[in-house]
Design a protein that fits this description.
It contains eight helices and nine strands. By secondary structure, it is of the alpha/beta class. Helix 5 links the parallel strand 4 and strand 5. The two termini are 22 Å apart.
């Protein structure tokens, strides 16, 4: 029997992100008992990266700390429009992930200087109201790669990613560097599924790698 091992890099975004955003605009936190919060996601709520944010905000809502609204599966083409609707609707804090719509999102932030924005982003913060976060887990990705390099019996590792953007490449290259550190003979097969949430396509790519001899997988 072949044991297949999967290493997964995940962002664990909790209510700390919400607390940071409230600190960014302290006047909002004390102006009224409940902060009006909206979130915009380009993927379904169950997508792992987004689900951490959504669950944290739902928990804050259940505690009575915020009023929370959210939209899922918002296309890049519609993202700016939805941001403007939430900002115009009086939401004081807007969260989301804008990796594919950086310019448009930052333009909205400039047009609504009294609204606070906290976005998963490739770029830097934008004064006075656009804060950013990302999954800076390249160190654990490197360590995972070191373990993977020592575990593989075939010297073949499969890697599945969403899009070949800097955030994804940073983690993948860290993982590969770690694997090479412990096993210079290891070879990698990399597939991008061009989606942040397509389980059937990811599964198809994974089994194709296994068929080619990969006995360790990174996603």
């Amino acid at each position: 029997m072949t044991t297949r091992r999967i290493f997964t890099g995940r962002l664990l975004c909790t209510s700390m992100a919400l607390s940071a955003a409230m600190a960014m605009a302290p006047s909002l936190a004390f102006a009224q008992s409940k902060l009006k919060v909206a979130a915009i996601y380009t993927v379904p709520f169950e997508q792992q990266w987004v689900s951490r944010i959504h669950k944290a905000l739902k928990a804050a809502e259940a505690r009575g700390e915020i009023e929370y609204k959210a939209s899922e599966n918002v296309s890049n083409a519609d993202y700016e429009r939805v941001m403007r609707e939430y900002a115009t609707g009086g939401n004081q804090l807007i969260l989301g992930e804008v990796f594919g719509v950086e310019a448009a999102a930052r333009k909205v932030a400039k047009d609504f200087p009294k609204t606070s924005f906290l976005m998963g982003s490739s770029g830097k913060p934008q004064a006075p109201n656009f804060s950013v976060f990302d999954n800076y887990i390249q160190e654990p990705a490197y360590l995972s790669g070191m373990i993977a390099g020592g575990m593989t019996k075939t010297n073949k590792i499969g890697m599945v990613g969403g899009f070949p953007i800097p955030e994804v490449n940073r983690l993948m290259h860290a993982f590969m560097a770690g694997a090479k550190e412990t096993n210079p003979k290891v070879e990698f097969t990399v597939t991008f599924i061009n989606s942040w949430f397509d389980p059937p396509k990811a599964k198809e790519a994974t089994f194709a790698m296994i068929d080619k001899g990969a006995d360790v997988l990174y996603a």
